[in-house]
């Protein structure tokens, strides 16, 4: 009976979901460096070429893996205030990264390689912006808050929020109207934030301002904690 079950399992139709799940399991066991189409195919009991019917290349595989693990982050807590809702989601993101230690490095690398985050990351950022807006934050303060939190919104500590205007357009980017419909909060933020093209730091965000804003916010928080101790 066991042999029949194994045969049925081996003959289960190959799908993008099965490939991504197998890739995540492989990376969980040995890190992102352990990933290869050959190893994934071997684990699924298929030839490597069969994988390419569902994922075009390794970059597409990595993007799909990111979306798969980001989907594990808890949805916003119903009825919670903005601070609790943000904190709970960030801690959920951190738990996700502890389950998948390879993910932070892959997310950071893929964000540098792409001109826009993957759909699941975009949806997550959009919802986090929405929490802040619903909590009464004006859009300019949301912009600065996203810089301050950086990739902490995804559970690690590198810069994530990138809205510089000098990047090459993404050929696979959604049309503006579809982008606005799918990610309304990101679109609002992008449309509302004006940048000085004559700034000494160049077009895009004023890095000096964002650095000082984060520094002052951190120092204010430390002062509050010092006063309370």
Question: Summarize this, please?
Answer:
The protein has 229 residues and is mainly α. The chain is built from twelve helices and no strands. 22% of the residues are buried.
Secondary structure elements and pairings:
Layout (H helix, E strand, L loop, with lengths): L1 H9 L5 H15 L6 H8 L3 H4 L6 H13 L11 H18 L3 H11 L5 H16 L4 H11 L26 H7 L1 H9 L14 H22 L1
Helix pairs in contact: 2-3, 2-5, 5-7, 5-8, 6-8, 8-11, 9-12, 10-11
Description:
The longest helix has 22 residues, at about 205-229. The protein starts with a helix and ends with a helix. Helix 2 packs across helix 5 and helix 9 packs across helix 12 (about 205-229). The chain has twelve helices and no strands. By secondary structure, the chain is mainly α. The model is unreliable at about 200-205 (pLDDT under 50).
